[in-house]
Amino acid sequence: MERSIYEFPAIFRRVHMERPGEIEAEATFMRAIWERHRKAPVRRVLDIACGNSPHGRLFAREGLATVGVDRSPVMLAAGRYENRSQPNLRFYRRNFERFTLPEPPFDAAFMMSETFPVMANNSAIISHLQSVGRLLKKGGLYCIDIDRHDGIKLVTRRSVWRRRQVRVGRVRVGVRELHRPVTWHSALHSIYELECTIRFPDHTKVLTRDLIPVRYTTPPVMALTATASGMFRMIAAYPDLSFTTTLDECWGRWFAVLVRT
Ligand SMILES: C[S@@+](CC[C@H](N)C(=O)[O-])C[C@H]1O[C@@H](n2cnc3c(N)ncnc32)[C@H](O)[C@@H]1O
To answer: Of the four listed, 20, 130, 203, 246, which is most buried by Cβ atoms within 10 Å?
Structure first.
């Protein structure tokens, strides 16, 4: 059976081309968003699709009560292990499309690393926003980062997009990225296929394959979706971790800021 790159948390970060300092910059920007848009102090935060919660770890270190949810047992195990001496960060295994938590309400929630677009169905997006909304205080903020996808062509046949080699210590990874076709009436913009051939120093070879649906969400679509959930209103769209860059100047991705109504 083929495996998933999410079973290898340290490798997945490099494959996703995370740059040094990126997580810290994102966490700093989220703090700035909270200061700008939330009157009350932020003390409790929810990291949705947390993986091993690199952002949550930073907030927990600053003393915020932080909770992460993810469906991957491997990611959660990595998060629990890495944060075993950090009482401010706790994890739950949940599917984010519809979930509840035995927790008091949160001041802020976030979903990072381009995960929102994997929700393909209208019903999943609405039940997701309602699940998050029920866990937030009124006036609480939900920050979501979304990549621009306008360079991606619709394909009619499975086609290779990029190939690259990545090194993680002594581990070598051959990465192939492909696009798979979608039907014209699908909500998806594309299906991104990520194939990794991982070669460990002991010559073991592991092949992973992940199919990641991509539903393209632009700022007006997010604004409409937030309102349709009956629980949120979109109050800002910030490009490239900046309050001053315009959407026209956006280089790679943008932050949706939703407020719990
Ligand atoms: C790109 S990773 C991001 C992890 C983390 N937020 C970060 O920035 O490193 C996406 C995460 O979403 C989780 N995920 C994907 N679909 C999910 C779902 N339906 N419910 C819960 N978690 C999901 C995966 O297990 C994975 O850990």
So the answer is: 130
Record the pTM. 0.94
pLDDT of 219-239, one tens digit each? 999 999 999 999 999 999 999
Helices and strands of the chain, counted as H and E runs: 6, 11
Question: What mean pLDDT comes out for the span 75-82?
Answer: 96
Q: 26 C-alpha vs ligand 1 centroid, how far in Å?
A: 16
- 232: β partners: 260
From ligand 1's centre to the CA of 72, what distance in Å?
Answer: 7
- Name the residue among 180, 114, 182, 106 with its Cα closest to residue 137: 106
* Cβ of residue 72 lying under 6 Å from some atom of ligand 1: yes
Crossing angle of helices 54-61 and 22-37, in 10° steps, is 60
Which helix (H) or strand (E) segment holds residue 131: the answer is: helix 122-135
